[in-house]
Design brief:
Blueprint lengths: L6 H16 L8 H12 L4 H4 E3 L3 H10 L3 E4 L2 H6 L2 H6 L3 E3 L5 H10 L3 H9 L6 E5 L3 H12 L7 E4 L7 H6 L8 E4 L6 H19 L2
Parallel strand pairs: 2-3, 2-4, 4-5, 5-6
Antiparallel strand pairs: 1-6
Helix pairs in contact: 1-2, 2-11, 4-11, 7-8, 8-9
Length: about 210
């Protein structure tokens, strides 16, 4: 048995298999890398159909990242999975307010989820913002409200929470809207998917700009 053990070779072979199994499927420029990265992360080819991109999502994300975007996640897991080396080279940062004491105290006082308060805090940040939501539908719902109120103007919303309650509905809020989005329609998603999408966007930018 000839096993592949080098990390770079494993990834290269994995993407080769993904390309082969996708067959003659084609995707618009910039979307292919995202779809394949998510499939690589999950081994789930349903994402070739489930991922939904707004018309300007890829370029809006790349522009924001190249101008030092702040990425806001709804879990520490998603935050941990995002490549910090690339992000810092672009002048950006990633934040998660879910474990913040002020957020927790405020959520308890108001009787709402920490995800809701986290979005409200994130909306006050300066500079281009990218939201990567992989767990909490309430984060997506509150973020959509803040956008509708004109409080927040994200360069991109990655909406991929996983689960059964309010998940589908929260994602559908963004479909067809004016805010650039990448949405995983249906119940599937997760923090790992959110991180994979952000990394796929970063990798494209690094390749394009030659960092």
């Amino acid at each position: 048995m000839n096993l592949i053990i080098k990390p770079s070779d494993i990834e290269k072979k994995s993407f080769s298999i993904i390309t082969q199994e996708l067959g003659d499927r084609t995707f618009p420029a910039g979307q292919e890398e995202v779809v394949k990265r998510v499939i690589h992360t999950t081994a789930d080819f349903d994402y070739a159909d489930n991922l939904c991109f707004s018309e300007n999502a890829i370029e809006s994300a790349k522009d924001a990242l190249s101008h030092g975007a702040t990425i806001i996640t709804d879990t520490n897991m998603a935050m941990s999975g995002i490549s910090k080396t690339i992000l810092s080279s672009l002048g950006g940062q990633v934040c998660c307010f879910m474990a913040d004491k002020q957020v927790a105290d405020e959520a308890k006082t108001r009787g709402v989820t920490r995800a809701i308060v986290s979005m409200e805090h994130a909306a006050k940040l300066d500079g281009p913002l990218i939201f990567a939501i992989g767990n909490a539908p309430t984060a997506l719902i509150r973020l959509h409200e803040l956008i509708e109120q004109g409080v927040c103007h994200p360069a991109l919303v990655v909406g991929v929470p996983v689960g059964f309650v309010n998940v589908v509905e929260s994602k559908e809020l963004f479909i067809g809207g004016n805010t650039p989005y990448i949405i995983a329609r249906g119940r599937k998603g997760g923090s790992n998917v959110a991180a994979a999408i952000i990394n796929a966007l970063q990798y494209q930018l690094v390749k394009r700009e030659g960092f």
